[in-house]
Amino acid sequence: MKRGITINLSNKTFYTLLAVISLVIISGIAYAALNPTIPNPGHAISELQKCSNGETLVMAGGVWACSAGVTGNIQSQWSETCPAGWTDTNLTDCDSGDGHSVQEDSCSDGGSAMRLCLKIG
Questions:
Q1: What is the 3-state secondary structure (H, E, C) of the chain?
Q2: Against a cut of 0.85, is the pTM above it?
Q3: pLDDT over 80 (residue 24)
């Protein structure tokens, strides 16, 4: 016993349906390609650029803020707890003491959860 769906269309009906579907697809492509207005381009530059010229975006006290006096370089270190004056990025890695800073599956092998700490100085 053969199962399946059988649709019987005349040639005229099949080609008419094919022409209508093709026309809809081509019309959609032409509209998308030739439409000069973009309905929602995303964020305006004023929403993205929060700091003025000469200012740097920094995290101060757990809040992002613009600061004009930031100079120097960025220091980073992996530590179980971030020292005073360092910012905790909340990025962790389990270090099993094997000397590698490679993301491991879990800390169940005796390793400790190391945190990435940053300092601008």
A1: CCCCCCCCCCHHHHHHHHHHHHHHHHHHHHHHHHCCCCCCCCCCHHHHCCCCCCCEEEEECCEEEEECCCCCCEEEEEECCCCCCCEEEEEEEEECCCCCCCCCCCCCCCCEEEEEEEEEC
A2: no
A3: yes
